[in-house]
Write a structure and sequence with these properties.
Helices cover 95% and strands 0% of the residues. The chain has 97 residues and is mainly alpha-helical.
């Protein structure tokens, strides 16, 4: 069997091209996987940061609710005291007349 040199070079070139194409595709896949992993890590880190921020906001809201409850309780006491003072003043006013 006589094979022409041009046919042999063509076959070897085709095989080399296929092997290099597969190798490059595999390398690009690994690079893409690394980039995706880095991106996923960045997103996960940002989500953790946001989650901690939300938790801090919840704690601040709970503390604010407690302060508001305390102010409401104090306001009720002041209103009761004011009402009592008005009754006493009304009584004194009637005594003066």
């Amino acid at each position: 069997m006589n094979i022409d040199i041009t046919v042999l070079v063509g076959i070897l070139s085709a095989i080399t091209g296929i092997v290099l194409g597969i190798w490059k595709n595999k390398k690009d896949g690994e690079k893409s996987l690394k980039e995706d992993t880095v991106q996923d890590t960045v997103v996960a880190t940002k989500l953790d940061y946001i989650s901690k921020g939300v938790d801090d906001i919840r704690l601040d809201i709970k503390a604010q609710d407690k302060r508001i409850s305390n102010v409401v309780e104090r306001l009720i006491k002041v209103e009761e005291s004011t009402k009592s003072a008005h009754h006493r003043l009304d009584g004194l006013e009637e005594n003066i007349k």
